[in-house]
Amino acid sequence: MSGIGDCTRTIATEEGDLTVYSLRELEKQGVIKDLSKMPYSIKIIVENMLRRRDGEVVTDDDIRTAASWSPEGNDGEDIPWMPARVLLQDLTGGAAVTDLASMREAVAGMGKDPELINPLVPVDLVIDHSLITDYAGRDDAQELNEKLDFERNSERYALFKWAQESLDNFRAVPSGNGICHQVNLEYLSPLVHVVEKDGRTIAYPDSCFGTDSHTTQIDGLGVAGWGVGGIEAEAVMVGQPSYMPLPDVIGFRLTGKLKEGVNATDLVLTVVSMLRKKGVVGKFVEFYGPGYQSLPLPDRSTIANMAPEYGATMGYCPVDEKTMEYLRLTGRDERHIDAVEKYMKEQTMWYTAEPEYTDTLELDLGTVVPCLAGHKRPQDLIPMSGMKESFAETLDTLGVKEQRKPVAGTLGDGSLVIASITSCTNTANPSVMIAAGLVAKKAYDLGLTKCPHVKTSLSPGSKAVTQYLQNTGLLVYLQKMGFQVCGYGCMTCIGNSGPLSDEVSNSIKANDLVVAAMASSNRNFEGRIHPLVKANYLASPPLVVAYSIAGRVDIDLDREPLAVVDGKEVFLRDVWPSDWEVQQLIDQFVTRAVYVSKYKDIFKGSARWDAVPCEKSPLFKWDEDSTYIRNPPFFDDIDEEPEIRNIVRARCLAKLGDSITTDHISPAGSFAEGTDAGRYLKSKGVAPAEFNSYGSRRANHEVMVRGTFANVRLKNILVPGSEGSCSVYQPDGTVDTIFETSRRYEEDMTPLIVLAGKEYGTGSSRDWAAKGPLLLGVKAVIAESFERIHRSNLVGMGIVPLQFLPGQTSETLGLTGKETFDIDLTDLEPKCTVRVTAYRDGQKLEFDTLCRVDVPAEVDYIANGGILQYVLRRMAE
Predict the structure, then answer these.
(1) Can you list the pairs that 394-403 forms with residues at least 24 positions away whose Cβ atoms lie under 8 Å?
(2) Nearest-5° angle of CA 389, CA 391, CA 392?
(3) Is residue 239 a contact partner of residue 119, using CB atoms and an 8 Å limit?
């Protein structure tokens, strides 16, 4: 087979002559059969292979593998993918920066230059995950929350400032400027990179790894981006490719248009439900069709954002004229926009034809109705008209035989206690934000107020949102209804909802009430929004405002009034804006000038940020007394020879059911003083009021290992009827916390495993959901299936993921978790069969599992104890 030639072309643009790694040339050589039939997302993959070809990491064979993508299936070799850049948020990203600092320390310990460790691709860290909604519903909420933020997190922010000063290719967006995905969409992404290299000006598509699963929001702009674990992102940052199978691509054809009063949130929740039923885990989804072409880009970004919820790696939106309109709106340079358009058309990445897909499904936009999702999964769609009946079913599910109705201002089952307009999913979409403002205005004008027991909050994803809401005159009405801006960050969306009032909290606890939270976010897993809230719902921003007025979720807003004012019933339809009203305000007030003014100083921080001490130096100065930042132990054994060892006489630390999320494994929210993490911090002199959250302490492994499997809603089947952190020490049957039980096993030198059901590790791309189990002593996880990112994270930390064979589960095999386990890892290779032998009461059970170490490079990672150890050892050679 002859080699692939140069395959470059030059195109003339307003940014000058640009060299393009040409897909047309590949087609001309016969490497690509028919570009018009290739999905747009796959074209980006092929270009990446062609441009990065070096004969070693990326070869002609890799290009042919990618270029031979077929709708009939792609079972060939995995390909080495290297995105153009990396996006970090400050929780998983903070852990990544800590690991880079630790790697520098390890390199210095080897007698080498620590400055060998630097990001090799551009990295942007956006500090957005630390801010907590301590204060809400008051005009000074933002100021008070930001003050507390810096009091809690100045140590962490000093680390980020050190990274900004001391690492190459690293930028930080300070706290208080926005949410990483919205900032990425509105500002950071160029869509097409234009760089000088070897005397040529090269253009290539933007692509992005992010340490947050909702990195997929950038897919709405036509960028190939998705979430990975912090471990995988770190590896890419230091030059290691991410190996991935060539994915199937599911085409999602959209036709028609949304009906009056139906918005992008209703659409995305419908899409999530449809695609979850379809089954798209590990696949790309690509949107197309006449309905797609009619969607404005913010609607597309809303759909793309929730790709993790429908299970896809990406929810890709091909580039067209609406993409160019959005680039102009958000302040991108006109000369660059010209280059983007010409590049995309030259590469046939501009939406024209309908490609061939692995499979397709179709949605008539006109069939979408107002809806919500809940009570604990984003894919569980509830038409608004069926909300009352749905909540009744939820009560039955939760074992409540008779609903306790509120009396004379008291709380009852179904009372709404949190209503939050939050998350990049919706705050990046002007149509739903302005609709929320209009609902607030109309409600206020009719004399309505929000119910006093509802904690209301507004946390936009960028300052541009606040500016256009202010310009429209609607911000003041949101404030009057209790939705004052409480900060710029993820906040309630990631569980940083802050405390409820003592009165509300005490009532919930005293009566064991099933109360509700409603947020315009993307996840509603149990225990995520607030530990006292059992019923959690996703809804559009205007519906969030409406339900805050009703004060309860056991209501049919089509037929029942929101409230009664002066004897007159006021219904949802009385306050709901027309599409024309919304569009008129968008056209007038959502302008290029707004985005330009709010992004010109995006890398500048507040006076509080400027006051955080920082010193440029090759090595970070670890403070041994710090309870926020500790040098992690991951590289302590770097001098040992790499080796894959069999796992012998292991015990089960946790036996878990289906849909165990990374929130279950490594919660991000607050914790009590009676927890293992709380006791540790108290021993260090930290008062409970200063505990902050697990997420904010991710750079301290001592806190995080104690928080592993500590979600208050976790059910460990080894301890029937239990919730939270508990396990059983075998063989004497002592029940204790997961952490304390693991320490006893560590004293015995007993390796540990986890048994689980389907979709183990679903949810956020949380690296501590792999790091924590490793530090507990877990060597393998045996599950019915794994979420994509979490599987990769487990391998990245040296934990072996094993999958039950079809038809087998812990239950069908009769595994109780009280067994001891031998796992034969001799001659480990990708996707091989691994024999497990379980012993209990003198009986022996042997069964085979599928090893989910999926590519050859991952075998090396397991042998080295993790991907970063592999990188360091290679550097030391």
Answers:
(1) 394/514, 394/535, 395/514, 398/514, 398/534, 400/514, 403/554
(2) 65
(3) no
Q: Can you give the pLDDT at residue 92?
A: 80
Structure tokens at 491: 């906040």
Token pair for residue 874?
């290679």
DSSP string, 543-587: HHHHHHHH-BSS--TTTS-SEEETTEEE-HHHHPPPHHHHHHHHH
Who contacts 356 (Cβ-Cβ below 8 Å, separation ≥6)? 37, 38, 39, 71
Average pLDDT of the residues of the chain: 95
Asked if 876 and 825 touch (Cβ cutoff 8 Å), the reply is: no
pLDDT of amino acid 764: 74
One-letter amino acid for residue 450 of the chain: K
Query: pLDDT tens digits, residue range 409-426?
Result: 789 999 999 999 999 999
Instruction: Report the first-to-last Cα separation within the chain, whole angstroms.
Output: 35
Helices 430-445/264-278 angle, 10° precision: 130
Considering only CA atoms, which of 118, 122, 98 is closest in space to residue 171? Answer: 122
Structural contact between residues 515 and 415, judged by C-beta atoms closer than 8 angstroms: yes
- At 7 the three-state DSSP class reads coil
Query: Measured on CA atoms in the order 226, 240, 633, 643, is the torsion positive or negative?
Result: positive
Question: 3-state DSSP call for residue 102?
Answer: helix
Mean pLDDT along residues 752-762: 96
- Residue 60 is predicted with a pLDDT of 95
Amino acid at 660: I
Question: DSSP string spanning 630-641?
Answer: ---GGGTTTTSP
- pLDDT score for 1: 52
pTM strictly above 0.85: yes
- In sign, the C-alpha dihedral spanning 244, 250, 255, 257 is negative
